[in-house]
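testing teh design pipeline on a random one, pls ignore if ur not involved
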């Protein structure tokens, strides 16, 4: 009884929070962050909707003549980014199994494909044939694709950190949150690009 009373007396502050065994709190935090990022993209898609649909002076063709979007180049970029999601998943599963070489190979491949995507988009900007001063359609185009490009850059930064830590042996089958969380973010970036590509380039 005395020991129990002393334990109660020594405890300060609120009781320890009850943590669900289904969703890790760190992973849940990442999902909540992604939800806020999805709302940011939603605001840009709303602007796109108003420019293209609600606006009474919206052009009949998208983009308006004589401009064209590089649909093929963007399609190749889409394939690159989607493939990088598979290599990211491979890297995560590899570290969970303790396969360090496969993990590092998957991470490096993911990083290189993300970098290729970003460089291709930069070249696309240089050769697209219009800029933000050519109308609302151009502002929406650069706004949506540029917002996504910024997220790719952030993702590449996270992947780079994971690669450096991976080569230093920081991850194990028991401790791989540092791989899983950037992986979740990277998958989100890939999914958002599919939506951007389908909305801006194809529809």
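output:
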């Amino acid at each position: 009884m005395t020991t129990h009373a002393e334990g109660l007396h020594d405890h300060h502050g609120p009781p320890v929070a009850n943590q669900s065994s289904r969703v890790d709190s760190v992973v849940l935090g990442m999902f909540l962050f992604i939800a806020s990022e999805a709302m940011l993209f939603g605001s840009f898609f709303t602007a796109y909707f108003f420019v293209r649909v609600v606006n009474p002076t919206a052009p009949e063709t998208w983009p308006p003549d004589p401009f064209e979007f590089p649909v093929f180049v963007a399609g190749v970029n889409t394939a690159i980014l989607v493939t990088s999601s598979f290599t990211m998943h491979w890297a995560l599963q590899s570290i969970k199994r303790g396969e360090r070489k496969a993990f590092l190979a998957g991470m490096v491949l993911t990083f290189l494909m993300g970098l290729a995507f970003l460089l291709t988009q930069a070249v696309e900007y240089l050769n697209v044939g219009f800029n933000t001063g050519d109308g609302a359609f151009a502002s929406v185009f650069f706004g949506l694709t540029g917002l996504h490009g910024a997220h790719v850059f952030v993702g590449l930064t996270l992947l780079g950190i994971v690669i450096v830590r991976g080569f230093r042996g920081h991850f194990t089958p028991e401790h791989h949150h540092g791989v899983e969380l950037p992986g979740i973010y990277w998958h989100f970036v890939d999914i958002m690009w599919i939506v951007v590509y389908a909305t801006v380039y194809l529809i």
